[in-house]
């Protein structure tokens, strides 16, 4: 645990960009974990309170139906944050497994895995995700199923990069020593090779957060995932197309509130990713 703190957490905190990005993500993570317990949500329509401006009673105002916008954002953050973190984790898990197998396995098994990776690399990612999601739009995939669907179109670039790293690592001295000592394949893969890849996987996990957020919001915005009225993508769809908030000056705060939270979360992911890259990839590091 001390090594994790010294090798990963402390450098991330010392870097200015990653520190700001981490604080933003921690803010939304706290919102998702404890926010719904502190901010009650009442989805009953109250048209007499439609498009109320921000006030002490409603810090972000109310929407077309008279529902508090802040309460919706807080309760929707649990699904948004859960989707992006779980999608990123599954993408890194699948990409690492496929990349390690491709880089280590000789002959036709390695070439077969290379073919699979190449196919997923050349597929137009978001259009393909929309087509696949359309087949499941009437089914309740749950957060795990939807995260797996998003991760299915995020893992391939990591797998290609990991396979190249493994190809350059598998003939190094410590791996050869394990082979000579008769160590099992599982030990070589997960103790010798995987440990070398941990910093790279950590960087890629952070980089995936932004893409996972864009994909999840896009699916919800287009109505290709199970309906959840508090998901930010659904709220944005309501604000733009259902409630006509763009065409009503009293409703501008509805659109702005949703968009600002999405943008702020994306900025947090970008800053954290840039800071982590500067730390673990010295060629990108900038000294302040």
Give the SSE map.
Elements: H1 2-14, H2 16-38, H3 69-104, H4 107-122, H5 125-135, H6 142-151, H7 156-169, H8 173-180, H9 185-221, H10 232-242, H11 252-280
Helix pairs in contact: 2-3, 2-11, 3-4, 3-6, 3-7, 3-9, 4-7, 7-9, 8-9, 9-10, 9-11, 10-11
The gist of it:
The protein has 288 residues and is mainly alpha-helical. It has helices spanning 2-14, 16-38, 69-104, 107-122, 125-135, 142-151, 156-169, 173-180, 185-221, 232-242, 252-280.
Explain this structure.
The protein has 288 residues and is mainly alpha-helical. It has a single domain (2-284), classed as MetI-like (MetI-like fold, Orthogonal Bundle). Helices cover 72% and strands 0% of the residues. It has eleven helices and no strands. The protein has helices at residues 2-14, 16-38, 69-104, 107-122, 125-135, 142-151, 156-169, 173-180, 185-221, 232-242, 252-280. Helix 2 packs across helix 11 (252-280). The longest helix has 37 residues, at 185-221. The protein is elongated, with a radius of gyration of 22 Å. The protein starts with a helix and ends in an 8-residue tail after the last helix. Mean pLDDT is 82; it is low at 284-288.
Give short descriptive properties of this protein.
72% helix, mainly alpha, 0% strand, 288 residues, MetI-like fold, elongated, single chain, 11 helices
